[in-house]
Amino acid sequence: MNRTEFIITTAIILFVAFAMGWFANWLVHRFTRVRASDVNELDRMARELHEAEETRDQAITYLQQREAELTNQLSQTEAELRAAMDGLRDARAEAEEMHAFMSRRGPGG
User: What's the pLDDT at 108?
Assistant: First the structure.
């Protein structure tokens, strides 16, 4: 192989390598290209996700407030129940005392 054939062969090999690299680059960009409709769809999904998270946060806040209200109401109701039970206990004790007093005084007295 003389010098001219070597230069031509080297040029052909380099051109083929360049062509293959360019083609590979074109294929990569062709398959990884993002379309505008895909970007719009992702934007829409991001907005909907954000709205859903806000709604969830509002629901959690409402449920926490409602739970606090119900806990407070339950505490008040339990306190009222204890007071009513104490009053009933006192009334029973007083009724028993009155009954015992009446029993000691006798039937006519």
Answer: 59
Name the H helices within the chain: 3-32, 36-105
Which of 3, 4, 7 lies closest to 15, judged by CA?
A: 7
Residue 49 has pLDDT above 70, yes or no: yes
Q: Domain of 8?
A: 1-34
pLDDT digits (tens, 9 = 90+) for 71-81: 999 999 999 99
Measured CA distances, 51 to 37, 57, 63, 90 (Å): 21, 10, 18, 58
Q: Are residues 77 and 105 in the same domain?
A: yes
Here the tokens at position 34 are 């993002």
**Cβ atoms of residues 1 and 9 within 8 Å:** yes
